[in-house]
Amino acid sequence: MKYFLQLVLAGLTKGSIYALIALGYTMVYGIIKLINFAHGEIYMIGAFTALIIGGALQITTGLPPLTILAISMAAAIFFSSGYGVTMEKIAYKPLRNAPRLTALISAIGMSLILQNYVLLAQTSDFLPFRSMIPNFPFLTPGKSLVTTTQLVILITTVVVMVLLTLLIKFTRIGKAMRATSQDKTMAQLVGIDINKVITFTFAVGSGTAAIGGVLIANHTGQINFYIGFLAGIKAFVAAVLGGIGSIPGAVLGSLVLGMTESFGAGYISSAYEDVFAFIILILILFFKPSGLLGRNEIEKV
């Protein structure tokens, strides 16, 4: 029973990280119908930012670990959001009226550029990431069912989901995002600046990915320039599983994916952990092509 619960917690932890990345995919797709394949690299940049800022603070100051984590997280969100917004202005905005395949190729190009940029600026080796999350007194390492980092990841993810839901449902910019997603032309006619809405969407999506990058780096204890690629692909799979364009779907798809990987690795073989994600994707798309919570779109000809 304990092993089963450990697998559940591991699956929820993975699913939470995938959800933080998948939110960016589904928000951008919902607004401009673009699959931003460079989104995984934004997640990776967030982790590297925390490594640099957090490492410098740990060496030069005597600040408490949670304070260092908060500062590193804020810096990661700021820089990742800046990269996301800059990427949208340079690589995607000029192609808004171009065929979708053109924008998709541009996204893949940005992914490769950011990967190699970090590779040249850092190293191809895995770098150790010293955890900034202190052990909570009520959790005994090696004995407690849940670890401190897992608990922090789960709590942070829930808080982010709640705040994002409140933002979209009850704020002025959230209403503008929903209007732009439904009909950009009509949104412009009623006075909504869709350029600002799209920029804000990229900033928020990049910020949530950065949070995921910082948390998973604290959990695994190492990072390298390539961590964003596989995580980005899996988060995209999760977004498709739940229904691309649906925020609740992105969360549900991520949790399903995380649990599938955890139980597959625990009861079958960890060597095929990445395969399980795509097997379940094929099954879901075979029986429900629009995803778990997605809706079929009717296109006028």
Q: Helices, strands, pairings?
A:
Elements: H1 2-32, H2 39-60, H3 65-92, H4 100-121, E1 127-128, H5 148-170, H6 172-182, H7 184-189, H8 194-220, E2 222-223, H9 227-242, H10 247-267, H11 273-287
Brief description of this entry?
With 301 residues, the chain is mostly helical.
Features:
two-stranded antiparallel ribbon; 11 helices; mainly alpha; single chain; 1% strand; 74% helix; 301 residues; 2 strands; globular
Structure description:
- By secondary structure, the chain is an all-alpha fold.
- The protein has a domain at 17-226.
- Helices cover 74% and strands 1% of the residues.
- The protein has 11 helices and 2 strands.
- The protein has helices at 2-32, 39-60, 65-92, 100-121, 148-170, 172-182, 184-189, 194-220, 227-242, 247-267, 273-287; strands spanning 127-128, 222-223.
- Helix 5 (148-170) packs antiparallel against helix 8.
- The protein starts with a helix and ends in a 14-residue tail after the last helix.
- The mean pLDDT is 88.
